Amino acid sequence: MHFEILVEDQSGKKALNILIPKLISNEHTFNVHSYKGIGRIPKDLNANSDASKRILLTQLPKLLKGYGNTFASYPDDYSAVVILICDLDSKCLKSFREDLDEILNQCNPKPETRFCIAIEEGESWFLGDIPAIKKAYPRAKDAILNTYINDSICGTWEKLADAIFPGGSESLSKKGWQAIGTEKSVWAEKITPFMDVENNASPSFCYFRTKIMNLTK
How many domains does the chain fold into? Predict the structure, then answer.
């Protein structure tokens, strides 16, 4: 199986490049493609989008149609799948999945595709593995980590920042979004190597893990 993995930012790519080899054997292959933000699903799914902007949901109709055509040209003994991984943020999960399915259903040919949504944000997958956070950041604040409810809508990256970043999320927020993005990439590089993919308390991570592993059976 070959995996084409789409993620919304650079920190997600750094994390997935470390996580995926923990989930699949060397006989499978993968590419992780990062974008410059999640954006929104366009109202007109057939409209042309500016590919140079590299906004994930804005580009998704075009991307899935392209993968559908590409996969259709592969020999019968070569299997490939698109995995979309993005944050739920404040969206309704049910309606968001319906919107994603609508994009996929307009593709002809339709690429094999799985949608994996991090609830609320990608940092929820880190917070699902507190031991990994503690190995990467031995001085992480237990009092904050222990109050986290897995996959809750609570300001996930802020919760992690409050536990491990000097001055917490308030201090990091003052530095601006570029600094936040840079710090998220640092978290991905430091925490992900310690993650135990078999033992993660985040339901959305477990859903992602199951989808990946089922595809390789």
Answer: 2
Is the domain of 135 the same as that of 155? Answer: yes
Ranges of residues in the chain with a pLDDT under 70 are 51
Q: Are residues 75 and 156 in the same domain?
A: no
The number of beta carbons lying within 10 Å of the beta carbon of residue 75 is 5
Half-sphere exposure of 22 (CA within 13 A, CB side): 16
* 101: containing domain: 2-121+202-215
Question: What's the burial of 71, exposed, middle or buried (CB within 10 Å: 0-12/13-18/19+)?
Answer: buried
Smallest CA-to-CA distance from 34 within 52, 14, 20, 50 is with: 14
105 lies in the same domain as 207:
yes
Whether 50 and 145 share a structural domain: no
Please give the model's pTM, rounded to 2 decimal places: 0.94
Asked if 34 and 117 sit in the same domain, the reply is: yes
- DSSP lists the bridge partners of residue 169 as none
* CB contact at 8 A, 63 and 47: no
pLDDT on residue 217: 83
For the record, the structure tokens of 25 come out as 């054997």
The strand order across the sheet containing 2-7 reads: 29-34, 2-7, 80-87, 113-118
